[in-house]
Structures are given as C-alpha cells and as structure tokens.
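Narrative summary of target 7.
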Amino acid sequence: MPVKQFRRAKPLESGANIALIAPAGPLQKPDDLPRAQENARTFGWEPIVGPHATERTGYLAGHDRDRLNDINRALRDPNIDAIWCLRGGYGMMRILPAIDYDALSRTPKAIIGYSDITALHAAVQRKCKLITFHGPTAREMLTDFSRDSLQRAVAKQTDSCGTAPDAREINSGTAEGRLVGGNLAVLASLCGTPYAPDFTDGILILEDINEPVYRIDRMLHQLKLTGALNVCKAIAFGECVSCPQDAGGGARSFDEVLGEVAHAVGIPCLAGIPLGHIAEQWTFPLGAMAKLDTRTRTLTVTSYTS
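Modeled conformation, tokenized:
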C-alpha cells in the first residue's frame, strides 16, 4: 500500500467561493461563461470569474502571464475555496514552473478539471501532495450523473465512482492504490519533467481524444519505458473518443493495444469506465485511495486520507 501522505482541501459546502479560470485553452462560445457561473450556483457556490477568463491569444486563453496571474491570484486569496477550470484545450504545461505551489500548500484548495488540466493535477500531486479532482470543466452542460459524482467528490468526499456495467475487462484482477492519471497525451508529455506525477502503487486512470490507436500504443509504451506502468497497481481506461483504429498504415484494436501493455506489466485493467470527453463522467479525487475489481467492473474510492 502507498505510504505517502496526501492532504485534502475542506469539502465545498454551500457558500464556498469558486474561482472560474481558463488556464489553458480559450472559451469557445458566448454562453460558456454564463453556463459555468450557473453551474457553480446550482451547487450553492459563489462563482468568482478570473480577470482574464475570457481572453484569447490564438489557441491559448490569453498570454501565459495573464493565465498564470489568474491561477496564482486564486491560490493566494484566502477567500477563495476552490478553482474550477472553465475548459481544457492546451496551454497548462506552459505555466507550470511559475505556479505558486507554496501558497497552495499553505492553504489547500480544491482544483477541478480534466483533459489538459491533467498537467495541473500532476504538478500539484508532485509538488504539494494534495488531492485534486479530475472532473467536468465548469462550462459543460452537466448531466445528473456527472453532477451527482462531482458533488459526492468535492462536497461530501465520499465514493464518487461505483459500478461501470458496460466496462470491458482487459486483464482480470483486483487492486488497491492511490488514484493517479488523467489525459494520456498530457501524461506522456510530462515524462522526464519535474511535474510528472508519482505513479508508485497507483490505480492509473486514463482517457484521450482524437488520437489514432497507433499513437495510444506509442504513448502507453512511453509510460512503460519510463517505468511508470511498472510501478502501477492497475489501469482503468475511460473513453478514447474519435480514436481511429486504421490510421498509421494498418488496423489494430484499442483493446488489443491496451491489453498488450496490461499483460506485459501484469496488472488488472478495465476499459470503458465513465471517464473522458463524454457527457456522463465520474469525478476522480486524484491522490485518494481506491479499489479496482475487474470482475465486478467496479472502481471504489475508499478513503480521502492516508
């Protein structure tokens, strides 16, 4: 079992102040920000919009310095209880070195988001040993399923996952460990940097989008070659959205590629859990303890404390 101590921020009760920021890609539609504000209010939270949340510089949500200032301002403000990222996209890793991790360590705050926000989750896990939340971005139209899981994770700090009846058993077994992971492409890009998460004794959750299967193959083997997969206890892959099998000169199935890696390192593996660029998704408290059972197709969050 993992021995490293991970801390948790206080549960987000009604009245919590939530910073809405865009630390990576820009908002796409005029109703994105109003929807994000309303989403926060439906949980009883008070949305505080970052000064540069609606800016755009090409594929980035404004200049690096402005996105960074929005994050650090929220981290340093004692009246802000959490950061809910407005969207993913790309750009988070560009500002990782200058984030005020000391401020976050002094005053832990919940951080919510997914996709490119994986880089922020990974860096915070590495630098602060703090639980963060891989869950829907603030701008999304939340289904009842996603809303319930998010509330269980950040407000109640109970099991936010459960049974995934449509999941596929890739390699059978059970495992207990600490939740780690997120977007596969981002995790692969962090390999060899000071911001890669510690995979030791981890239940590795993964998702991706717009990546042909041969690229999934490459990124999984990149993690394997670094030793990351060799120290994991299990893999739980969500959805690989728009990931064609026949690109790259020949077809191989996603499950074949994933199974090849899981068998090689000898760990249990599920695919098709509610995770990724999909409407109905679980919120995962990264850094919390969990148990995976491939036979029952369950992923259970067992503890938010070590």
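The longest strand covers residues 174-183.
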